[in-house]
Each structure stands twice: as structure tokens, then as C-alpha cells.
Design goal:
Layout: E1 6-8, E2 13-17, H1 23-37, H2 48-52, E3 59-66, E4 69-77, H3 86-89, E5 100-108, H4 117-130, E6 136-141, H5 146-155, E7 158-164, E8 170-177, E9 186-193, H6 198-206, E10 210-217, E11 220-228, H7 236-243
Parallel strand pairs: 5-6
Antiparallel strand pairs: 1-2, 2-3, 3-4, 4-5, 6-8, 7-8, 9-11, 10-11
């Protein structure tokens, strides 16, 4: 699958891969959105060095343009054996890191929202990862950030773990295996209100539940968790992922 260097939609949005000359515009846009939200539980600021890393050979950055103006971006990192990123912190073996694409960050400016742009950026980012053989896409997002959760879930990712970042905030680990797996049989679903305690979320995940849906009705926002029957998969990295006891690290 080719890297989507350019993708033009009917509503005049163009998405293409960015080069390092876009470091400063991406930096300014990211932190502009952070100042708008100003809540570390939902979104975090980034410094120049962090953003610069996604423009080297171990990352990709994609930008969304509306009428020629940069209005959104999305980036991914490709860990290797000596990496210290998300997958390594979750305890994956160095030999498994080459299968993982770590979704790093993304944002969309207010004037470009309402166009499902985040969903399209997530897909383009995943396609870029697949060109590197990164079949397991991972991301972290605040459990209360229902709109970002919904975007990842609509792409086919599921919430599989709860991870506490160094600053102390919790993040839901979202993941999708793009390789062909055996058909999984769903065994049950359960609904829980957004805002349940960390301990409740961890207990659900440890019991085999995965976050599959976030929705809003007259009762407010809710999570929907799904359970599957056990399947056997002999690929070492898949076994490692399924066996990880990182539900509340």
C-alpha cells in the first residue's frame, strides 16, 4: 500500500505527508489547540524536540490543508529495539517493537472541525504505518476525551489497557491489529457511564473486556465494553500482546 502523499476529498481538504519545513507550523498549531483546551487530562502541550522527532526516518507526519492552509496534523512513531516509547514502557520485548506504530499526536483547528477530519487523519496515519510493516497500531487518549476515543473506535481500534503517564494522568491504550486474525466470537457487551473510577475500568479490562464504543444518549456519555471468546494465535508478537498484564500500569 503506497504512502498517501496526497489525498483530495470533495470538500476541498487535502491530506499529505509533511516534511521538516513544517516543524514550526505544526508546533504552533498543536500548542494553539492546547491553549484552547488547557486540560492535561484531555490534551498535552508538545515542545520542539518532541515534534521534530516525527519528521525523521523513525516517524511520519501528515498535514490537512483547507484552501491551502494547514488546519490539522497527525503523526506516528516507529519504535525500534532501543526505543523508550509507549510500547517499550508497556513492556513489549525489543523484538516485537518492529511490528508497532505508535500514534503520537494530532489536532484540528476549530474552523476545520465537523468534517470528520480526525477520522481521515487516523486512517492516513495507519496506512503510512503499514508501509513500514507496522501492523499493530497503538495510541493513548484520555478516558474522558470522548470525541477522540470515538474517532479511534470508529477506525476499528479498541481500548485494551489503562496507562498512567509520567505526569500522573491516566490514558486509555487504543490498539488495532491490521494483520489477518482468526475470527473472534463476541460473548457479551456491557455499558458503563463515562466517569467510572479507574479501579472499575481496570477490573473490566483485566476480566477480558475491551472498550468498543463511546456514545451519547439522554443519560449522557457511556462506554460500551465487549468480551470475546479466547482464540489461539501462534505469532509471537500477537501472543505477547494478548498476554500483557499492563491493564493498570
Amino acid at each position: 500500500m503506497p504512502i498517501p502523499e496526497t489525498s483530495i476529498s470533495s470538500d476541498d481538504i487535502t491530506i499529505r505527508r509533511l516534511g521538516p519545513d513544517f516543524l514550526e507550523p505544526v508546533f504552533q498549531m498543536h500548542n494553539c489547540v492546547y491553549e484552547e483546551i488547557h486540560c492535561n487530562d484531555l490534551y498535552r502541550a508538545r515542545d520542539h524536540d518532541h515534534i521534530a522527532d516525527v519528521f525523521d526516518e523513525d516517524g511520519m507526519c501528515f498535514g490537512a490543508f483547507l484552501a491551502g492552509r494547514l488546519v490539522g496534523y497527525s503523526s506516528v512513531r516507529f519504535p525500534y529495539e532501543d526505543s523508550e516509547g509507549l510500547a517499550a514502557q508497556l513492556g513489549f520485548a525489543p523484538s516485537h517493537l518492529r511490528y508497532i506504530g505508535e500514534c503520537d499526536a494530532s489536532c484540528v483547528l476549530p474552523e476545520a472541525r465537523g468534517r470528520r477530519l480526525q477520522e481521515r487523519l487516523i486512517e492516513v496515519r495507519a496506512r503510512g504505518s503499514l508501509t513500514r510493516g507496522r501492523v499493530l497500531g497503538m495510541a493513548i487518549v484520555g478516558p474522558a476525551n470522548v470525541y477522540s476515543l470515538r474517532n479511534f473506535l470508529q477506525y476499528g481500534m479498541r481500548g485494551v489497557a489503562l496507562y498512567r503517564i509520567p505526569s500522573g494522568e491516566d490514558r486509555m491504550v487504543m490498539a488495532r491489529d491490521h494483520s489477518e486474525l482468526l475470527t473472534r466470537t463476541e460473548t457479551k457487551r456491557e455499558r458503563r457511564p463515562v466517569g467510572i473510577s479507574r479501579d472499575e475500568i481496570v477490573a473490566i479490562l483485566k476480566s477480558g473486556g475491551q472498550l468498543d464504543r463511546v456514545f451519547q444518549d439522554r443519560d449522557g456519555w457511556s462506554y460500551e465494553f465487549v468480551w470475546f471468546a479466547d482464540v489461539t494465535d501462534e505469532r509471537s508478537w500477537v501472543k505477547a500482546f494478548n498476554a500483557k498484564d499492563f491493564f493498570g500500569v
